[in-house]
Predict the 3D structure of the following.
Amino acid sequence: MHYKIVVHYAELALKGRNRSEFVKRLRKQMRKKLKSLGFDWQVRSIHDRVFVEIPTIEKKQAEQAVTELARIPGIAWLSLVHWFPEPEFRFLKGENLQPVYDLISYLANDVYQEGQRFAVRVKRSDKNFPMNSQEFEKALATCIFKTSSWQHVDLKNADQFFYVDVTSQGMSVHTNKIRGTGGLPVSSTGRVLTLLSGGFDSPVAAWLMANRGCSVDFIHFSASHHNLNDVENYKIARIVRQLSEVTGRSRLFIVPYTHFDMALLEQDLDYDLILFRRFMARVAEHIMVDINAAALVTGDNLGQVASQTLDNINSMNRAISSPILRPLLTYNKDEIINKSMDLGLFEVCREPYKDCCALISKSPRTKSKFNVLDKLETQYLEGYSDLIRDTLDETTTLVYNFGQLVFKKEFGDENSYV
C-alpha cells in the first residue's frame, strides 16, 4: 500500500496574501525535521493542505514521522493516509473503485469495536469525480455494512470516522487524525532570546514563543564556568536540546554571573535581586544585537515570586530599550507544570537545580523604583560597561539543531556567534 502524510493547517489559512509565505516556511521546517529523522522526503502543497511523499517504507517508520511532525508549530492536524494516485479514480465508478472499497472493508474490520458507531466523511475537491460527497459516503457506508460487523451509524457523534479525500492528484483514505499544536511555523514572525533558568517557567515560555512563529535562542546565567566536554550533560543544555526538537536550530549562550557577584560582594543591598535582573537584561541585549533578536523573553509570572511584582517588572523593563515579552504572565503554577508535562519537559525541569536568582538574594524586595536603582548602580557598580564586557568574554556557546548538538564554543575562542 502506498502511503502519504497529509497535513492541515488552521491559522495559516487566514493569512490572505501572505499565506503562501507562511506555508512555505512550514514546509521548510517539516523538511528539516524529517531530515533530522533520516527521511529525505518530498514535501509539497496541494490546494489547502501539505502532502509528504513517502517512498516504499515500513508503516512503523511512517508512523514515527507523523508523531514527530505533530510537534512542529503551524500544524492543526495530520494523518498517515492510504493513497490512490491512479488518475482513473477521478472519473470512473463501479468496479474501477473496487480497490477503494476493499481498503475500506479492511480498515473497517481492523478498527471494529463492538457497540460503537461509525460515520464516513468524504471531501471532494475535484469536481470531475462522478459521485458527489453524499453519494460516495453512502456507497462506502454500504460497503462497511456488508463486509464488516459494524451495525450502527452516527453522523454527528460517531466513535469511529472513515475519511476519504478526493483531489485532482488522487484519493486518500484514513481512519484517524492526529492533533498538532496549531500556531505558526517557526521563523515566520522573527527571532527572540529567552532568559532560561532551571525551572519549569522559562522553557514553557520559550515553547509558547516558538509556537507563535519565533525562532528561539537562549541565554543562561551560571554560577560557575563549565568544562566544554561536560557541558552537554548540564541540565540547562539538556533542556535546550529537548526544546530544539521543536524549535529547530537554537543557540544557547551560557554566561557566568561571577563578575556581577564579585562587584556586590559584601554589599548588603535589599535591591540586589532586581539589580541582578537588570544586569541580566543588559547582557542579554548585547547578544540580541549580535544575533538579530527583536525581543527578550522571560518566564515571569505576575506575583509568583518577589521579583515578579509589577514594580519589579517595570524596573527590569527600564533597564533596556528592547521589548521584554512574558508569555506566562497570567498563568498559574499548575497550568505551567501541566503544560510542561504535555511538552515532555517535566522530568528534566524537575531535576534539582539552584536558580541563580535564589542564590543572589534570599529576601528580595517586592517593590522598587527605577530611579533609585539607577543611583545604586552608579554607586556600587562602577564601570558597568566593563562588567558586561567581562561577562560576555566568558560566554560558552552551544548550537542545537532538532535535538542534535552541531556546534560548541568555549570562552576565549575568537570566533563570532554562529
